[in-house]
Amino acid sequence: MREKIMQNLKKILVTFLAILAVVGLGMGTVSALSKDDTAELKITNIEGKPTVTLYKIGEGEYSERGDSFVRFKFIKGVVLSEDKPTSTEINKIANDINRGTVKAELIDKQENIIGAYNYRVTGASVYIANIITGAEDGRTYNPILLTASYTGEGVIKAGEVSVTDHYLYGETVVAKSSQPFIKKHITKSSKDDNRDTASVGEKIDFKLTIQLPNYSKEATNKTVFVSDAMSQGLTFLSSSLVINWNSQTLRAKNNRFEYNNKTIAELSFNDNSFHLNFNYDNLENHAPEVIYSALLNEKAIVGKDGNSNNVEYYLKRQHFSVQHL
């Protein structure tokens, strides 16, 4: 009887060990997290061949054995909501990096980007694509937050962000990129082979249509500057200059265009040109239209060369021009 009991116990023990062996093999197929896990950050739909500069603002903390992720640790001065990072937080971090009050590590810098920016990182980490500049088409970019973090299945994945997207939290109407432009129209002149022509003494009317950039509220540089430099053959009529904005027609008083005690633009003159420095925040996303006139004078050039009339449009780190003859 005793031998039979021992035989049964041996059978149970063998069965139990077999179960442990199966469980052990199953556990062995699950990959542990590691500080050496890699992922690829990606920014898509980039246009204008800009320069992308990447800063590291936080990294993951792992367990002592390095096989489990604990949390993100941000560098000094960075405040960021991990669940719902807002546009305000992202732009403030970028501004602080620019000012030097946040000492972020410069990780990567790539120039003349076409289509997409890629960068492979190691371990859980957080980044700001802070300075995207030099786009040939005048496009402006706002700071972009990128993270490499773990999924519920323990797989590290990096964020992929399109510059055409809007911020998810905070200023959701603000796109991560925008393409401003300026167009000049001659509204009163004669046509000769698709060229605008006029006689000496005749008044020529101009209209500038401006597409504004998309700056965040936290941006520190919100430049919107327009100027027109006319040739000797054109005499600028300063009294003709008006700004159409938000269904209002504004005229300068003491070299300021104002509405409801808010400065819309400051005006200055230099020789035969004018300069308008717009207050971006006071424009309230309403694009201005600039109307003005000039006289064709006796110094006008006759023939194909014509009389040049150059409009310059300056934005944050961007500049482009339009010329009329």
UniProtKB/TrEMBL annotation:
Transmembrane segments: none annotated. Residues 36-177 form the T6 antigen Ig-like domain. InterPro entries: Adhesion_dom_sf, Fim_isopep_form_D2_dom, T6_Ig-like. Gene3D superfamilies: 2.60.40.740. NCBIfam families: RrgB_K2N_iso_D2. This is Repeat protein.
